[in-house]
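testing teh design pipeline on a random one, pls ignore if ur not involved
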C-alpha cells in the first residue's frame, strides 16, 4: 500500500481564505466533491482529535459517506487528517494539505497516501482534481 498522490495548485486568493475554505464546514460544503456532486452533510471539527464526516451525493442520487480524524492543524499553514470511506472502513488513508503564501496567491500542496492500488489512487486523483476546480470557482466568487 505504498501508492500515494500529490496535487499542487495555485489559487488567486489569500492563504487565510484558502485555509478557511478547507476548515469551515459551510465553506467546505460549497466545493467538497467532484463536479456534479453536492455535499449535503459536512461536519468538520478541525482540532487535533476532532472528527469529521461528510456525504457526497452523486448526480444519480447515490450517497457516498466518508469520515476521519483531524491529526494536526497549524492555521493557516497546514492540515492533516485521516480519510475513510464508510463502505470500506478497513482502509484508513492519510491526507495532508500545506498552504504556502505566494504574494496575493496561495500554493496548496495536497498529499494523500496509503491507497490499496494504483487504480484507487488514480480515481482519487480525478475526484480531487475536479473538487479543486470547484474550489477555484468558489474562491473566485
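output:
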Amino acid at each position: 500500500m505504498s501508492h500515494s498522490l500529490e496535487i499542487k495548485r495555485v489559487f488567486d486568493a489569500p492563504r487565510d481564505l484558502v485555509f478557511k475554505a478547507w476548515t469551515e464546514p459551510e465553506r467546505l460544503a460549497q466545493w467538497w466533491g467532484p463536479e456534479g456532486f453536492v455535499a449535503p452533510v459536512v461536519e468538520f471539527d478541525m482540532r487535533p482529535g476532532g472528527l469529521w464526516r461528510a456525504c457526497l451525493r452523486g448526480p444519480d442520487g447515490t450517497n457516498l459517506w466518508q469520515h476521519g480524524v483531524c491529526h494536526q492543524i497549524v492555521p493557516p499553514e497546514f492540515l492533516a487528517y485521516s480519510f475513510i470511506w464508510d463502505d470500506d472502513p478497513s482502509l484508513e488513508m492519510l491526507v495532508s494539505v500545506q498552504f504556502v503564501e505566494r504574494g496575493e496567491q496561495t500554493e496548496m500542496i495536497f498529499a494523500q497516501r496509503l491507497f490499496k492500488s494504483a487504480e484507487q489512487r488514480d480515481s482519487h486523483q480525478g475526484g480531487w482534481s475536479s473538487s479543486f476546480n470547484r474550489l477555484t470557482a468558489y474562491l473566485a466568487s
